[in-house]
Inverse folding.
C-alpha cells in the first residue's frame, strides 16, 4: 500500500532501530535516563531555548504548555482549524478549563490586526481574560502552510503590548525551516513555549519535545506526570528522536518535492480545486467540486484503497495527501495515476 494518510505512519529505519536497541537507559521520571537527557539538551539547543522536555505525543506537548500558561476560566486565541482546538479531543476544556477565541485565517494564517481586535483585558467581569496566543507552523489544515515570519513578529508585538504569552504548535516546524532555509530560533524566539514532533516527517515512532525557559519546563514536568506522560526507561524512544534529528531533517526537502510533484500531476483534473503554488511543504489538500467531480472525497478514498493507495478524507469535499520518508517518487507517480484514473 502507498500510505499518504499522514506523515505519522512512518516506520523506524534499520539505523534508527539499531540506535534504539543500543540506547543507554535509566528512570526518566527520576531524571536518570541519559539518552532522554541528551535528547532534551539537543532539542533545547536546536529550538533556541533554555530547556526542553520529552513527552509521548504532540497533543500532550500542546496541552501541557497551555496548562502552564493559563488558569481555568482564561481565554486563548487561535485560528479556527488549529490542531489544539480541532484535533485534540476537547483537551483544552477538559484539562485546562479554558475557552477559545477562534479566528478565521487564510490557509491557517492570522494577521496581527485580527488578533488585536479580540483581546480582552479581564477588567470587565463579564469577560474571560485573554492570556495566550497559539499559532501553528506549519499549519496542518492550512495545507502545510508556512507562517510568514513578518506575521509572527507583528502578532508577537501585539502580545507583548497586552502582556500575553505566545505558544507555538511546532509539530512540523522543521518542515518550515527546511523549506525557507531559516533556523528554528528565527521562529521560536517570538514564543514563550514551543513544541516539535519527532514522530511525523522526522520518522521516529513516538515522541515530541517542549522547549521553553528552565522555569517553564520545571512546571511542565509536573503536568507531564499529572497527564500520565511520565515514562520510565524512555531512552529507547529518545534514541529514535536523536537519530531523527541527526539524520532526517534535511531530507524533509524530498517530501516537499514529492508533494509538489503530486499536486502538479493532479492539477487540472475535472472537479479538482487545487493550486500547486499553495503546496509549500509535505501536504496536498485535494478539494473537490461536487457539481463536476465524479466522486466525493469519501468515495474517492475507498476507491483509492482498492487500488492500493491510502489517503484521508476529511469531509465530502476535502482529502489530505501527505508525503513522507516511506513514500518514494515512483510511489507518488503511481498514486497520482490512480487518482487521475478514478477522477478522469
Amino acid at each position: 500500500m502507498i500510505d499518504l494518510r499522514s506523515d505519522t505512519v512512518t516506520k523506524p529505519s534499520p539505523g534508527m532501530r539499531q540506535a534504539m536497541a543500543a540506547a543507554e537507559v535509566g528512570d526518566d521520571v527520576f531524571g536518570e535516563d541519559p539518552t532522554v537527557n541528551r535528547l532534551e539538551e539537543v532539542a533545547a539547543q536546536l529550538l533556541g531555548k533554555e530547556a526542553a522536555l520529552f513527552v509521548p505525543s504532540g497533543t500532550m506537548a500542546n496541552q501541557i504548555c497551555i496548562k502552564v500558561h493559563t488558569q481555568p476560566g482564561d481565554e486563548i486565541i487561535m485560528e479556527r482549524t488549529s490542531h489544539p482546538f480541532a484535533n485534540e479531543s476537547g483537551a483544552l476544556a477538559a484539562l485546562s478549563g479554558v475557552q477559545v477565541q477562534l479566528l478565521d485565517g487564510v490557509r491557517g494564517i492570522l494577521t496581527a490586526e485580527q488578533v488585536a481586535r479580540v483581546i480582552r483585558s479581564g477588567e470587565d467581569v463579564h469577560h474571560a481574560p485573554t492570556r495566550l496566543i497559539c499559532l501553528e507552523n506549519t499549519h496542518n489544515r492550512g495545507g502545510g502552510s508556512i507562517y510568514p515570519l513578518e506575521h509572527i513578529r507583528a502578532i508577537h508585538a501585539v502580545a507583548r503590548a497586552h502582556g500575553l504569552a505566545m505558544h507555538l504548535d511546532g509539530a512540523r516546524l522543521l518542515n518550515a525551516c527546511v523549506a525557507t532555509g531559516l533556523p528554528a530560533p528565527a521562529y521560536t524566539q517570538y514564543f514563550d513555549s514551543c513544541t516539535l514532533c519527532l514522530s511525523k516527517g522526522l520518522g521516529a515512532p513516538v515522541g515530541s519535545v517542549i522547549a521553553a525557559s528552565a522555569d517553564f519546563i520545571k512546571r511542565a514536568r509536573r503536568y507531564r506526570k499529572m497527564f500520565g506522560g511520565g515514562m520510565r526507561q524512555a531512552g529507547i524512544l529518545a534514541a529514535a528522536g536523536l537519530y531523527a534529528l541527526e539524520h532526517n531533517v534535511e531530507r524533509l526537502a524530498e517530501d516537499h518535492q514529492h508533494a509538489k510533484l503530486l499536486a502538479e500531476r493532479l492539477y487540472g483534473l475535472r472537479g479538482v480545486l487545487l493550486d500547486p503554488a499553495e503546496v509549500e511543504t509535505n501536504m496536498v489538500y485535494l478539494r473537490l467540486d461536487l457539481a463536476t467531480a465524479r466522486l466525493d472525497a469519501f468515495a474517492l478514498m475507498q476507491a483509492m484503497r482498492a487500488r492500493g493507495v491510502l489517503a484521508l478524507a476529511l469531509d465530502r469535499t476535502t482529502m489530505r495527501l501527505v508525503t513522507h520518508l516511506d513514500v518514494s517518487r515512483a510511489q507518488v507517480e503511481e498514486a497520482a495515476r490512480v487518482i487521475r484514473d478514478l477522477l478522469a
